[in-house]
What we know:
alpha+beta; elongated; 5-stranded mixed sheet; 33% helix
Amino acid sequence: TAVLEQGDDDDDDDDQSPPTPETDWFQVQVIPTSLVAVDDDDQSGSDNKINLQLCCLGRRQGVIVTLSLEGKKLELVGAFEQGILDAAWSHDGNNNTGNLDHSILALVVTQDDEDDDENDNNNDTPQQQHVMLLTMTQDFQVLQEVVLETIPAADDDSTNNKQQSLLFCPENVSLCWRPDGKWLAVLLPSLQQQMMVVRIWDPLSLSTTQPNLGRTEDGSGKLLPQLGYMVTKDDDSNDVATAPRVRKDLAWANETCSLLLACSQHVVTAKKTTTKIVLMEPNGLQHGGFSLPKTKTRQVLVQMAWALPPDNFNLLALHVRQHQTNPDGSHQILQDKVQVWHRSNYHWYLKQEFIHDGTTAILTQLQWDTPSASNSHHPTPPRQVLTALLQNGTRWYYEMGWNETVVPSQTNTAMVVDGTVLKCTPLGRTLVPPPMAAATVDLPHVVRHVALVPTTALQKQQQQQHGVVALVQMSTQALVVLGKPPSPSSKGRYKPPVILSALEPSVLRFHNFVVTGVESLVSGLRIDFVAVETTESISQPQHLLELSLSLTAEEEEDQSQFTSSKLECTASIPIPQDDDERGRVLAMTQWQSPVSNSSTDIAAPKKPVSVLVELDNGALYQYTSNAEDANSGTLQRFLCEGMMDTLLEPCPWIVGVERQRPQHDNGGGEENDFADDETEQIVIGMSWQKRLYCGDVLLADSITSFYVSDRFLCYATTATTTTATTSAVARGAASGASQLKFIALSQLFSLDPFMGASDENNAVVAADYEPRNVERGSRIVSVLRNKPMVILQLPRGNLEGVAPRALVLPHVLQQVITNRNYKVALEMMRQQKVDLNLLVDWNPGEFLSQGAEELLKQVTNVDHLNLFISSLRNENVTQTRHFLPDWFREEFGLPSSSDATSAFDFSTKVNQVCQKLRSIISDKARVGQALLLPVLSTFAKEDPPQLEAALSLIQQKAVEEDEHSRNRNKKPPLFSERAQSSIQYLAFLANYNLLFDTALGMYELDLARAVARNSQMDPKMYLPLLKQYREFPQFYSCYEIDMRLKRYPEALRNMVKSIQAQEEMQSATEVSAEGDSAPGREESGKLANSFHDALTLIKKQKLHRLGLELFHEKGQQREILLDLGDHLLNAGEAENALTIFLTMSEPMPSEQILRAAKKCQDWRTYLSYLLSTTETNDDDVQAKAREVAQEMASSVTAADLTRKRRVLSDAALILLDYCNDPSEAVDLFIQSELWSEGQRVAMLHGDPTLAQKCVDAAIAHAHATIEALPDRATTFVSTMERYSEVLKIRKEAYARGESELPGVSPMNDDAGSLFSAASQASHLTGASATSASSTGSSASYSSVISVSSTASSAFSLTGSEQTYRHKSKYNQIGQKVHKNQKRKKKKKKPKPNRVIPGSEKELETLQESLGILCLDASFMTSVSECIVFLIRSGQITVASDLYETYQSSLKKMRDCQESRMKKSREAREQQEQVNRREGIRPNAAEELLLSFVHPLETKVDNLVFEVLPSSVHRLFEYLPQELIQEDGY
């Protein structure tokens, strides 16, 4: 319909033949530059239109024509007389790579040789021809050209030359661009090599460089033979009739597949012809390949197409044509096949094959495409759609999606489709790396679909001889029934499923079917399944077919051979259609039930079979079988409480989960349509965009796969996955690594889809349990049923089994709680590095009552028991390392975390468990050699370690073994092999120095020698020491041992026993442990066991109480008491020292009594004892009394007003009573601000002058106070203002993490303060460090027992001294020398006293100043007494002024304090309101600061300003103002 326009200006167009209706158009392609839309500035109208231009190529006439779709006009560009063999654009519009502005057109043409002028003049002379490769711009300007092959001139009689010229036909030439346009490949015959050759060119240098040739991968450099499918144009051959009109033997992958070039290869031998696909790198070297399945008829590869990114490295589609030769010699096309191949782990699998009848549906074109998403709210889905165009104009669409086929049995057999072979691997027994398999099942045709039998049907068929495992559909629509093998698999050998029956193709065309049940009949089996009808057109309505397959056996009792089969369609249910579009089934699945351990959540009851059906628009329907009539069913809209009947977007992968409704949900509440429903259901699906949904709630936005196990929803995320909740994002849920995550199914049932992104839903979505990092791109294949393991398929194709902590913990607790199998649980925990404390902490009371005994019964391996004991710690791991959430505790019936903590004291857990294990062992029988080591472990693990009891047990066992031994040897019992091994084990558990000291403390020298022998101690050190102790008498030896061990009370007791026994040294040769004289021993050989030596020990170690108990003679007790009093007096306990001295009998220590009384300022006792004991005159007594009064007056300070008044008052009484000096006494009363008392004393002695002196002093004090109080109040206000500023500075510093929060003790040495940890968590931008991996640390499972005691016995192999941390603890060389060396102490620089502004020190200084400036009780008492005294003395005006000044200052200070507290409270409330109004969720640091109150802030807020007594206020109410002004009547 287009009009051809020929230019009149170009003379060269006269020689070109215009295209005619008979032109052989072989390629119509959009010119890439026409895809660019017109700019907005150049648009004349409002519509943004693209003027598409097509490039049309004619093969026979070799014409190039452009066609404008807007004007429907053709424009002749040029023509090649010999025709065009092939052509291709560097950007064909189907890729997303390449540059539109620089697309290049490549052509392979045949031209005559025009270089020879003679040949131009003589047209009768034959000319040679050139096969050339040309590149053109989008304006059809030739860029470069190169000659590929030269065909010699052919004479009429030269048959060879004719055949050579006939080889270069379009069917033998293929042209292909690399997607990025950097390389160009040409497949054509080579006259020199006499075969088809691939040439790979750099398009920018065609004429200057040599191409890369396709060569074999063996390194020999040979060219790849028999490439392509060579066709000749000999008139006697009919191959052209069978060859496709346009055949493509080359296809280039994208960069994600290493830019591999695929080429067909037809290997012809004498017996067979094999079609292969070889892959080549850009340099031409072969990079693997695969062979097409063998067929009985001849097949030809027509076209290859790589899938689009990102899956082009996985999928390659082939168009294969089969034909046969008729008796008359003609060729007939039988069928066209579309095969989809997948590469994994360097192996190519034939995954799908679609067959089209060659008589009615001839395939013409094959390409990958992505469907539009015009009806979707999301961007274009990244799904792979294969489009097949037939000759009759029909277009078939095949949507590709991956499904894992794993039989849900104990073996978890995985089935991998590879053409006509089904590869089976029992994942529960072994992991065979692909492409290998444990066994294979050969099928007659290519597998298209595998439908597994439901789990319930598998359980029913366990006792049957031939249970049905799966139903397989072939590419020919034939069905094959697979069953379990007749004989069970022997140990170590796996037997795959067997073929029970194979059905011929039926007239029914269906796909995507689900097996609903298997029923055993008298004469065979019946398999019921539901399938989707395959229609010929999208416009045709689709039906859901109820199919029944009956298998009949020869004998009723022996169903080993099925002789007949029958497939029936019992019902056809139409798929509901919408008003706008017709519904198509996207996915179907059966309902599955989770496992349950609680009584309130059990499996779903038996009911009619139902199948969940999803349409391509996301609508959900439910097919339900008729319980009365098995041949009919219904398809109704899926209705579920709290869930919409349509998913947010179509999900081709869906799983339906149902459970029985918990009993607490069936009771009260509002009535609804689902009140009578006993089950509740959820739907989990993954969309094409890899989004994971649970009903209408988005769980994750980028995953690779998911799997629903018995307890969890497991899904693998990508590195860019973020959960769909704002709270999760706020807490750093954006993970930098791919993870395997788990959400409990019980939590998913609690989701409320109508609440959207509520806090409750966010909490469920964000509460992924124990995630685990995996390799990016990993896919979940299966979750094993018999062990806690997830099978992953890594991106490169190999399998890997991992045991995530989320599956291990429930498995372990199920073994312990349900099965009471501690042995299996302990073994699993050892393998997966789970903290063994979990065996106790899940329920400590249950473990102590029953679990400990079961553990000792089942676990017979001593090493495992020792490992369990060594791992015990005084903490609850269910709240720290292995956190058990509430849903976990509800499922297993465990108490809540708060109840468990309050019911058991975990600070004594280790001691309770160790004592319980020992009691169980001792109750059953005496401790035998088999359980000796675990008992020793319990002793060493207690806190403090019971090493003495452990050594006593070893000694007892050694003596008993020696007594019962028939062959008595000369060795001591402790040096037997068993005793030595026990001591060696105990020395490994505890520090050997502590163990040696413990043995010495038992006064068992043989035991100490045995311990030292197995502790790598130097014999030169311990042998002389033990020899010395043996030479000492009994009690004195014990005394020396106690002194070495610094057990001074025991040393004193043993010394007293030695003194009482009058022990003496037998030998004068004495060598101490250190090589010098032993402490407290004479060098002459006499023992230091006298009372003088004991008193020296008492004085040095302060053992006075014990000395008084051990020594009963009065003289000895007096010396001890005198030393005790002196010690107390020097220690600052003068009052206790005075009491000790006064309790002594005559003669009393007068000097000590007076010195103690004077030091404690007990002047009454001092003066009374002085008068009673000394013979002095009155002058001496007055002098002593005046000295005491002066010392008391000089010891007081003005800061402590209360003590000042008390001490000065006592000093004034001393001067009155003992010195008769009223003048000095009144002065002291005035200094203590006791004016009334001073006035009383003055009037008592009749001295009016002294009385007036008191009044004058009170008036002067009042005037000074009146002047100081306003300044004091002003200073308080300014200090409070500065305090508020510094407090704000400090809180801001805490928020920035610059300082640790004061008043918060760190959890441990490594964790830092509580606020510091929260502050660091708030600044994290990646993954949280808690998602700790789930592998754990092996360091926490060593057999080392750490004992926390004053003398630490931690099993460190390094020295305890900081200087020798690099040395082994057994290497003592140099350490003792180092202890005696004098270290040079560095001079400490004096710390500056300058207070840094805004620091914590300034805040403390300000708080202290405010406390001093505050009007406290002592200051108020002084002011009130001064006011009353002045009024009574007639100084009413001065008293009134003091009263008014105090009241105004008090109000000013109080208002300042209340104002600061009010501002702080209002600022906090305002910030909380802003956060709630704007929806801001503060991080951990901000939340802590909002509720945090500085300790100093509490002190300032609690400052008390004392009010004058009410009597003073009423006094001024009674007095009139005139009286106050006139100063009395």
